[in-house]
Amino acid sequence: MNAMGPDVGRRCAELERVIIHARSHFTACALVTLALLVYGCTGIVRTDATLTLGDIAGETTVVEWELLTRFGERVSQRRVANPRILACLLGYLKEAKAAGLPGKENWAEYNLSFELRGGRKVRLRYLVRDLSRCDPGYLEFPQGWYEVPGQFNILMEALTEYPGGSEDVDPQDEAFLRRYGWTPAFRINTLTVTLPAEFRHRAGEYPVVLYWAYNNELNRDVGLDLTPALGRVVEVRMYKVAEALPEFMGPRREAGRAVIVRYRGEIVGAWLDAGRHWGFACSLRGRSFEEVTGETWEEWIPLLIDPEHPVEKELSRLSPDGLIRRYFQAVNAGDHAGAHACESRRALAGYLFRNMDNRSLYNSGYPREGNIAGFRVISVARAKHLESGLPAGTQCYQVVVDVEPKEPIAYDSRRQQFFIEVRRETDATGWRIECIGTGP
Q1: Does 98 lie in the same domain as 192?
Q2: CA–CA dist 245, 255 (Å, integer)
């Protein structure tokens, strides 16, 4: 933006004095708008009609954006000055292509502001269906619309999720990831972790073993193996990758994180995960667990279980009804390991990622106890009418209980029903609880 000359400055000042004495708020707003558009006072963000995509991609030193709600509010403001992240964002802008006017959809609208070298600022309108999707966005220039690659949106979403991302990316880690087509946009965290002593999970244990055993299968897809480092302290580096995860990872393709594991300075582990909610993702070759191992979860999980373990043998003799009652008995006795032993390994894996701090690999333990002191089981009845659509071999039970809180809030006890799905985890270890819900 050109410097404001003395004549323009004088006229801006005159308009400001008029605005101050304006009788109508509407008139004042209109005059402010007129002053900004006509006289271009210093500090005002505006779009130069000659601005090009090359200007933005080549001269930007800071990017800011804010979401415009349907009520005209400006929220979710973000600012990027980190050179590495900025370079990634601008690199995707360079790939933008001229496009027609976007169709009428339920667009989310953003203001994108670019601070260019020399202090000039420009603001452009940006439309995207949903930042968490990997569809392209649309950026409006004076000359028309440009379609921006979905990776731009992925990074925008990531900066919301990881506001403290570091540009400290190890060159060797980056070279290794780029070998398989992944770009580490920024480092999420660095952790020191002790690996489990073996890939064996015992009933009731917190399922850290499942995390490492599952990902080591993905790890082998690129010729690496964690086995020599079992029981040892390793360094784990997590990076946000700019690319979308493979199609089979929908609808969480934007959540990809690269995990690099080093032991004695050497890379012994590398795979992609998807952060909280359900962290398992794919190998660096973009292949699923089933593609890498040739097995489903159900076919693979017996490798991690010792069917001769006393708890496994005891549970293997229970019917679905008996297993459910055993679960509630353990809860009432404060035997949390015993209660979790009644759950399947797939159900236990959910505890690793549920409500996880996304700077972590997984949660450190089971959630804390709530306000429930115990349950009194009233009835357990199979609900065959609810089994349609469930995985083969799954049975559903309607369980009615009296819930007793530790500290009464609005009641001393309350009758409640649960719907519990059970399935044979392996032929040798019998039934396990897959899911506990409060509705069918």
Answers
A1: no
A2: 7
User: What is the rounded (10 degree) CA torsion for 271, 276, 280, 283?
Assistant: -20
Q: Is the pLDDT of residue 266 over 50?
A: yes
Task: Kindly report, residue by residue over 283-307, the tens digit of the pLDDT.
Answer: 999 999 999 999 999 999 999 999 9
- Burial code (b: 16+ CB inside 10 Å, e: under 16) for 114-145 equals bbbeeebbbbbbbbbbebbbbebbbbbbeeeb
The predicted structure's pLDDT at residue 53: 87
Residue 29 has pLDDT above 90, yes or no: no
Q: What is the CA radius of gyration of the chain?
A: 28
Residue 391 in domain: yes
Asked which of 5-14, 48-57, 271-280, 378-387 is least confident by mean pLDDT, the reply is 5-14
Poorest-pLDDT segment among 24-28, 70-74, 181-185, 365-369: 24-28
Domain termination site, one of 234, 261, 295: 295
Residue linked to tokens 């209660």: 339
pLDDT attached to residue 42 = 35
- Both 323 and 259 in a single domain? no
d(CA 173, CA 116): 31
Residue-number span of the structural domain to which 87 is assigned: 53-161
- Own/partner pairs, 435-439, CB within 8 angstroms, 24+ separation: 435/347
Q: Are residues 429 and 320 in the same domain?
A: yes
